[in-house]
Structure of Signal peptidase complex-like protein DTM1:
Amino acid sequence: MSLDAALQRGMVVLVAAVVVVGVCTFSLEKMLATYAVGIVGIAGILLPDWEFFHQDFPQWFAFMRARRATAVAADACGSPASWRFRLYPLSSALITLIYGFGLYQWWMFVSN
């Protein structure tokens, strides 16, 4: 799935979640909070340079060489999205911790 399609699908799911929160709570404030949390969540998954974060942790503080691949080389090694969602323990743990805390805070706000 291309990044544009993923962004579009994420936005559609976000709008559906905002509508459900609005219908269930009748609160514009909670709808806006849901929208803000969703936008930050979508941006946190789709915008970062995952190639940079999918290195060993000590290399996060070193400069990363730019990759300049031609179209032929890019086709030969596969699409850039092929390495996008590989599981790495440290980055997966950090993402889970941050998103888990954010979702918990959002749920506490919406449910009260």
In short: The chain has five helices and no strands. The radius of gyration is 18 Å. Residues 3-25 form the longest helix (23 residues). The mean pLDDT is 79.
